[in-house]
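tool_log.txt
---
The assistant was asked to compare two proteins side by side. It first ran the structure predictor on the initial sequence, then on the second. Raw inputs and outputs are pasted verbatim so the downstream comparison step can read them without reformatting.
(1)
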Amino acid sequence: VGDHTDDTDLQSFAFSMKKSIMDLTVQTQYIVLQLVSQLQKGYDYLLIINSITEVKFILRLLHKMKHLFTTRIIVYTPFDYHYPFGIKELEYADTVLTPTKGVKDTLYCPHGNDLLVDYPIPIGVARERVSKLLGLRPFTNDEVIILNANRNIPRKNLEATIECAFRVNKIRSVKITFWIHTNYSKDLWRMIAEKAKKYSIATSECFIFTESGKSEETMNLVYNACQYSINTSNGEGWGLSTFEHGVVGGVPIVSDAMAMKDHFQEIGYCIPTVVERCQVEGETVECKKIDTEALIKVVETLRVDEDYYRRQKAMRVYTKGFAWEKTLNIICSVLE
């Protein structure tokens, strides 16, 4: 691979990695093999930033080829609730940084926001701009909008958000709009249609649907147009869409078992969880899934005027407390 296509160790290792559970796994194997061919040129540091599931897999691969390079390995990863604090693969890293507080044998390193990308815009201005840009219906300034901007994969558990949307709007006299920003599939559309029929509510009464893949500038408009950010994932990790939304005052509605919940619970709503067995990136693990009934009770009683102080605090916390400069200073101190 790369400069070392004749290297017997790399070739034998590549052919031994036949048990692949998904295309992403194959891609990761190939990338790591290419990476090792670069590390053999004498790099001092390798910084890996990814979810703990991917980090485990990458470290496992690197460890099998550790005799081929001397590079120091630094990991920066959040710790989801379903992983114990003793993860064997982390022993293969020289230093582990994490934005999750209280994890043994790691250094705390808060995550950072890019304030040139995510910044506050008056809600009325943002709604008018994004409505025209994306061809959406006009918004009213007093409309309550909750955003879920996660990928459409089982781990993200979009069904819990969609179930909540239908049931809350069945109860409330003042409707709440749920903005689902994701990559759509036939299965997702089928599930939404089935729930619309079950609760006798038109999707247009509950939802705004937009496709993922928008620019950072467009996403900043989307964030500014929504007062709340909902995240019903199983094994969330970074929670990036919720984290970025906080910069502009998005109040988080999240599971109380998220990796960075200590930040979110300061300013938002942490929903209780129930324990289930579920699939997370190909692994069967004990998950704490968000309690849908508890979620519905919280969303049903939301009052935007009462949450004004939460929005202001979110902007203060995420613009002053979580800047990339702080994150980079910690990482650089480790590299010195």
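(2)
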Amino acid sequence: SGSLSSGQGIEDEMLAGNDKPNLMIVSEAGHFMQSLNGDGRNQQSHLTHLMHLILQAYSASSTRLRTRALAGKPSKDIPNPVLHVFGASTPEKLSEVLRPENLTEGFLNRMLVVMGKANVGMIRGVDQFKVPEHIRAAQFDFMRMPSDDVVVTIDQSAWKDEDRIMRRYDAPAEDEGMRQLMARSYEKVMRIAGTLAVWDMTKDKLTPTVTVDHLRWAENYVDAANQTMYRFMNEFLFDEKVHKDAKKILDSIDFYLTREGAQQANATQRVLIERGFAPRSLVLKRTKMTAPRMSEAIQHLLMAEMIETITLRVDGCKTESTGLRRL
């Protein structure tokens, strides 16, 4: 009863699934978030409950999720709920509907985010593929696990790494956006490392154990996801002046590295272009910014690790030239 577009529907699916994991696929995540966020005045109650349930299910995964009470039926407990949400959207659409509160209230920092390259050509889909043998073996070993509760342990050699990761993510961050993203990073690392430990079980060792390799792989994965979200926030999400200026600079860098843009460069500037850098002087001219305003935007891009710069002196020139390149 109820669709997966409502918190009530997800609760019903969880109860009917006999404690099995649940996967919620959102093909248009931008429209989904637009519905969840509403306008604050006419927000529909079932969508409010859906957002609350997604947050609650994540936090209750190590304990129990208490369902709603129905007429004549008491609430029930769902032990260790597992709710996966997979969504896809264009960054432009997502940036229109996301709010800063989605980060501060803990929704976005629960997610693992990847971003594809722009303007990628279409390719023919794969008709079929063969599951690798090591995956099949892991699946077989997984099915041989005892039906009772299985405890994932941490190898003693990994204790120092776990403590290092916890302290690293707990350290104060100068940037508020990154500080918010780091809030649940340690938790995500441990979830991923535990999952890897389960998949790395063998028929001779059915007790999943987190190792140093599991922790470091998970840490790298979460770091990449955090940087992707941070890049999205800086490039698309907020409409502050510096972010708009940064977008103009990135567009100008892309332009001068095309054939059309390179034709507008002089001999000295073409040396930079041949090395893959857009001349800063041309970028300034195209964006029509003042020099201090452009410097502020460039500093923002450098801190976000979205561009790099190079400074060199071309033979025959008295002054140095600076170039900018996307990372």
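---
observation on (2): The chain is about 50% helix and 10% strand. The first helix runs from residue 7 to 16.
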